[in-house]
Amino acid sequence: MKSPATEYTRHQYGHLARKESIFQQTALLYQLFLDDLDLCHGHINSGDSAARGERIHHALSILMVLRNQALAMVDNQQDQTPSANALPARLLELYDHCLACLTAVIADNDIAPLNTAWSMIDTVKGAWDELAIQQEQTDGSEG
Question: Was domain 24-142 assigned CATH 3.30.390.30?
Answer without folding.
Answer: no
